[in-house]
Every structure is written in C-alpha cells, then in structure tokens.
Amino acid sequence: MAKKGKRKAAPGDVATNRQATFRYELLDKLECGMQLEGTEVKALRTVGAQLKDGYVTINNGELWLHNVHIPPYPPAARENHDPDRNRKLLASKRDIEKLTGRVSERGLTLIPTRIYFKGPWAKMEIALGRGKDLYDKRQAIRERESKREMQRAVREATR
Description:
Layout: E1 13-16, H1 18-23, E2 24-34, H2 38-46, E3 55-59, E4 62-66, E5 87-90, H3 93-103, E6 108-118, E7 121-131, H4 134-158
Antiparallel strand pairs: 1-6, 2-5, 2-7, 3-4, 4-5, 6-7
C-alpha cells in the first residue's frame, strides 16, 4: 500500500508546484531572482512556501509574483512580513521583453514552478504555460495509471 502524506520536493527545492504540470502544458522555463524581505528568506529556509495558485504578471516591464504564500517567520513576532504580498521577480530586460511578446499570445500565462536556493540567493523558476483541456488531463491520468500498473506487474514478476 502507498504511504500517506505529503510528497517531498526535489533535493535543494524549497517549494514546488506539482499542480502546474497537471494544469498546464509547460513550454519555456526561466530562472529569476526574488526581491524578498529578511523574514521571508528565513521563513523560506525553515517553513517553505505554497505555490499552487500562484501566477506571474508583467507590469511596466517588471515581473510580479501574485498569490504565493510565504508563511510568517515565528521568531520575528512584530517585524514579520505580509505572507500574501505581491513580490517582484528579477530578470534581465531582454528576458522580460521575450516573455511579454509570448504572453500576449492567446492562452499563454506565466506560472511559478519551483523556489530554490542557489548559494545564498533565493531563486524562482517560472514557466510559460498553456492551459490543458479536460481531455488532456484525463489522458495524463490514464498514462500515469497504466505506468503504475506496469511497474506493479514487473515488481510482482520479480518476486
């Protein structure tokens, strides 16, 4: 029987958006820096973050992250950050211009896929995604279940 509970992120990842690959067809990926407050960095290192409903917009040539929850850092009682504030993402002007052109196409959006630390800096991977239709999601579920059944059959045959 499968273990119950939350699946762990990849080594080195603070948070991953596993729903992104189910909801969207991911086209291009880009690594961005994050403009954070001190307590947010400490909270990311200790508690993590929630990316499930997050999205990225482009305003005045800047990338902004919305709906990403970084919980408060418990030891910093009064000087804590707002957990649901909008955060600025740091990327080169050329990358932002490319994304602006691509996002203007119908049906494309920017999705945060993971947060991780690269040295002392918090980085975010964002992806350009196109929403999947319902039948695409059903097909993904079917493929996943058939792969799982093949693995079970191989495991039973080797016993």
